[in-house]
Amino acid sequence: MNAYSVLLYYIYSPIDNVLEYRDIHHEYCVKNNLLGRIIISPEGLNGTVSGTVEACENYMKWVKSDPRFQSIDFKVETYDKVAFNKLYVKIKKEIVHSELPVDPLVKTGKHLEPQQLKEMLNDPNVVLVDMRSNYEHAVGKFKGAVTFDMENLRDLPKHVSEIAHLKDKTIVTYCTGGIKCEKASAYLLDQGFTDVYQLHGGIIKYGLEVGGENFDGKCYVFDGRVTTDVNKVNPEVISKCHICETPSDRMVNCSNPVCNAHLAICEACGTEYEGACSTACKVHPKKRPYDGTGAYSKPKDGYRPDLAFKTRLNTKKLEIVENLGLCE
């Protein structure tokens, strides 16, 4: 039995004391041996956290004890170890970088629960639209879903024209945990789409609650696992090894740091090319040693999770945090 949990969550709920709350949240995680990435923003909270099952259960209770976050929806997966090497609690302008001129607290697509989506999958009037980056849907996506060749959500306005002919359809947006769809679905409504839904809790919740049927491949996640299984009903590998084109969902970074391409490379090619994505990268003088994983974490030398950033109220610092979206 796995002794650790991985939590994925977000909530759009105004936070007035972002500087103070960032320190409070950081301190709690340090004291309870939780690692992960957490974003504190004036518009809400977004995070992926990992630790022991008990520590994660206590963390969920602690977060929900704050009246601002009582309705937060945690997606909980188990794992055989802590899924992160470090703890980051950052202040940013948005809890997911989009630059879309919308406010999910004012308008957003209708939430669709996993079971409801499962019942709609065979409806020809329903179109699923993936709101994730190209490298994410390359390794896994819903069968028949529309995907965009975009690097991040702020590129969405450049691609809306690709689905303009679907304005008379029922649009269901989806992403990893649901956070991107809050703004993406709102943006589609602003662009004249009238029947817009979003998968509540995203791909992860769909897999946890209804078995992940018709989600092909694996779901890309932003922790040490890199990808996670979703479909327990009719799984299928859709991504191919970058080198030999055999089916593979093993996502790695090229061992040449100058390239550092993030793509699928099967174990056999990984061994043959020493973690590189091509012959040129294999012989590159700066190529990193390959340990069979294709993951190249930054050294933890001098890393001290107990040392919180100093966030004393300072007019200039507050202006930087709120206007430029820089982390503390």
UniProtKB/TrEMBL annotation:
Q: What is its EC number?
A: 1.14.-.-
Q: Please write the reaction equations for the catalytic activity of this protein.
A: uridine(34) in tRNA + AH2 + O2 = 5-hydroxyuridine(34) in tRNA + A + H2O
Record family assignment? Belongs to the TrhO family.
Q: Which residues form the signal peptide?
A: none
What highest taxon heads this organism's lineage? Bacteria
| Native source species | Lacihabitans lacunae
Pfam families linked to this entry: Rhodanese, Rhodanese_C, UPF0176_N
Domain Rhodanese residue range list = 122-215
Listed A to Z, the keywords are: Oxidoreductase, tRNA processing
Its top-level enzyme class, in one word, is oxidoreductase
CDD domains on file: RHOD_YceA
InterPro entries for the chain: Rhodanese-like_dom (IPR001763), Rhodanese-like_dom_sf (IPR036873), Rhodanese_C (IPR022111), TrhO (IPR020936), TRHO_N (IPR040503)
Q: What job does this protein perform?
A: Catalyzes oxygen-dependent 5-hydroxyuridine (ho5U) modification at position 34 in tRNAs.
**What is the name of this protein?**
tRNA uridine(34) hydroxylase
